[in-house]
Amino acid sequence: METLASLPTLRENPHLMRRAIYPGTFDPATLGHLDVLARAARLFDEVIVAVAEDSSKDATFPTAQRVQLLQDSIRHESWASQVQVTSFRGLLVEFAREKKAVAVIRGLRAVSDFEYEFQLALTNRRLHPDLESVFLMPRETLSFISSHLVRELARLGAPLEDFVPPAAAHALRQHFGKK
């Protein structure tokens, strides 16, 4: 098993690809998720958005649709060529190992997110000591947005444009039978 000390560094190999995994259910992806993704794309050579197939959460949209909505939402972004959107099943650390990722990206909206994310990061470190956790915060104007909140707004017929990309807004309206 590779250890942190045995991994090549950028100084030793300037052509080394720095790949990060940005996992989540993305049900749906919000503007906050996309803001975190844009920030991650500035820090890493490649970011794999990993849509969880076997989450304990009851998903509104099937996995394939969540992947497609994300792809549609980032298609025209300047950093889209650095991002791959796919799904995964099983342990995140195993997926990260398979993809040769050096980091996991996690978004923090508020202090209340930190305790849970801290537990995940320490668990992931125990399972894969060489995988770093990188916490990024979305723009403060997006920090209150959650997928749960957006689904509730959609169910009640509220405008969604300030919370999710157009593809997700359209899919939510269709799902909840709203205009």
CATH superfamily: HUPs
Percentage of residues in helical conformation: 25-40%
* Poorly predicted sequence stretches spanning 5 or more consecutive residues: none
Total count of strands: 5
Q: What does the radius of gyration come to?
A: 17 Å
Shape: globular
Query: Kindly state the mean pLDDT as a whole number?
Result: 90
User: Within the largest sheet, what's the order of strands?
Assistant: 3-2-1-4-5
Proportion of residues in extended strands: 15-25%
CATH topology annotation:
Rossmann fold
Structural class: alpha/beta
Number of domains: 1
Task: Supply the CATH class.
Answer: Alpha Beta
The CATH architecture term is 3-Layer(aba) Sandwich
Question: How many strands, what sense, and barrel or not for the largest sheet?
Answer: 5 strands, parallel
Report how far the terminal alpha carbons are from each other: 54 Å
Query: What's the tally of helices?
Result: 6
SSE sequence, one letter per element:
EHEHEHEHEHH
